[in-house]
Amino acid sequence: MHPPPLDVATMRASKDVKDIVIDPSKLSANMLLKDGSSVRIINMGCQHSGSVARSWVMNPASLSDSAAWIQEADKIARIAFTPTEAKSFVAWAAKGQLQKPDDSHLVLDGTGYGDMAYSIEVESASMGMGAWLTISYAYP
Questions:
Q1: CA distances to 31, 53, 73, 88, 138 from 116, in Å
Q2: pLDDT for 125
Q3: Which of 21, 30, 55, 112 could be cross-linked to 133 through a Cys-Cys bond (beta carbons 3.0 to 4.6 Å apart)?
Q4: For residues 44 and 122, what is the distance between their CA atoms, to the nearest angstrom?
Q5: Of the candidates 103, 107, 131, which has an alpha carbon nearest to the alpha carbon of residue 119?
Q6: CB atoms < 10 A from the CB of 136, how many?
Q7: In the structure, what pLDDT confidence band is assigned to residue 108 with cuts at 50, 70 and 90?
């Protein structure tokens, strides 16, 4: 197993993070953001190494506003991923367009530099009570 390191310094330095709880034994962290959102990040590694960040967004944009969701994904990537991975993720996301497979989801999957696999998924909660935003990257 060769999971990527948890970039605690970047998380703590972010102006968007209000509080953070880190579990180095599981390569995970939970963050409360100043806007009321929460983020959970987990780094993993086996056949493929990478990272997943899942955010609860309290006042989500409409699912029809792809640009707002990509901007939110960029914000989470800059907080949760290493600066190098965040930069790659943001460059990849800027070239994409979220697809709407059904009334409650937006999805963008693809590959970037060096065959890195990236993903953005938005899932609206029932009764308009927020949304889940999940972003990830994995090395091939």
A1: 25, 16, 17, 9, 6
A2: 79
A3: 55
A4: 21
A5: 107
A6: 21
A7: confident
